[in-house]
Amino acid sequence: MLLAALLVVFVGQVVSLAFLYSCTYDEKVHVASGLCYLKTGVFSGGWSNPPAAQLLLAVPYWLGWAQFDMARNSAPVAARLVNCSLGLLFVLAVYGLARSVGGKSGGLLALALCVFSGTVTGLSAVAGTDIGVAAFGAWAVLAVVVALRGESLWGFVLAGVFCGLACGAKFSGFGIPVIVMFVYLTHKHRSWAQIGKASVALALVSWLTFSSLYLFKGCFTEKPHLRESKFKAAVGFFLPKRAVFDMRVVSRQASMGRDVRAFGVESTKGLWWYYPAVFLAKTPVGTLMLLLAAMVLLARGFSLAEPTLELRLFSCFVLLVAPIFLFNRAQCGVRHLTVAYPYMYAAVAAFVVKSGQRVFG
């Protein structure tokens, strides 16, 4: 009952916000990029992003369910509703991760932290790429966690699909295969054969899923010969040329920085403290208190010899946010940290619930 109530509250929030929010500066760029790709086979790489999320946002307009007008200032509500569904996938994945390590109570606590997070609900209610990469990444890790119980290789195949989609939604998703293998390799001692099979399955399926996103040229147009050239580009250079070009653009932006103003301070090359400060400012006080409590409990029970699943999930959070904190100078809001949020929520909930069970029996 509580699970259903929290999901209803979340859906009610994001759907109502999708109709209430004014149009943001980049929503229509994402939708236009995906719609152009679906209709003409030409991918413009809107804001130097890969195509997965943009394709999903454009589907209602491509199917004729809604009319898209780039010139009008009205918000792309149909695309926002698609993103609301990705937000629902996000919170369900967080619930699954937290429940797998903290039981039903842990899952409900993590879900509540998501439902009442302004960052999660806000990003789910607008047509962007941030909630999609976080949702696909969380499902990839959840697929591996479930697969570890039965040593199923199919779990890694499914994780590979989600890894490819995460990489294809935003380039920050390229950290997802790393944390998936981290969760697997730190589970327990394994033979080299097991590690090899899992690694090959994850890498191959991730690559095929990601590269296939750049092969639609010819699938939706009358020029099927163009598909062959894209296929050769993907195979010959490991990654599609368009992806490599956009990755270089994003890397240059991250290293050079941009004009930013935060807390009354201005900089033309970014602020070294920007992301830690924004994280603290945008995270609810209750979540920060639980995070602090979890870190204290982690310090008291820290063990590299037998790392628990909640410790490994918290490590995933650290592994994803550390490069952003240290190296990303393209600073435009807390949304760049969203890819790491599922593991923070799941780990915090598990630490708190398990500690409470030990204290109160």
Strand order of the largest sheet: 1-2
Order of helices and strands: HHHHHHHHHHHEEHHHH
Shape: globular
- Beta-strand fraction estimate: under 5%
How many DSSP helices? Answer: 15
Strand tally, please? 2
Instruction: Note the main sheet.
Output: 2 strands, antiparallel
Low-confidence stretches: 218-229, 231-236
Radius of gyration: 21 Å
**Which class do the helix and strand fractions yield?**
mainly alpha
Distance between the termini: 24 Å
- Give the proportion of residues in helices: 55-70%
Concise summary:
The protein is an all-alpha fold.
Q: Could you list some keywords that capture this structure?
A:
globular, 2% strand, two-stranded antiparallel sheet, 15 helices, 361 residues, 70% helix, mainly alpha
Characterization of this structure:
- A two-stranded antiparallel ribbon has the order 1-2.
- The two termini are 24 Å apart.
- The protein is 70% helix and 2% strand.
- With 361 residues, the chain is an all-alpha fold.
- The chain has 15 helices and two strands.
- Strand 1 and strand 2 form a beta hairpin.
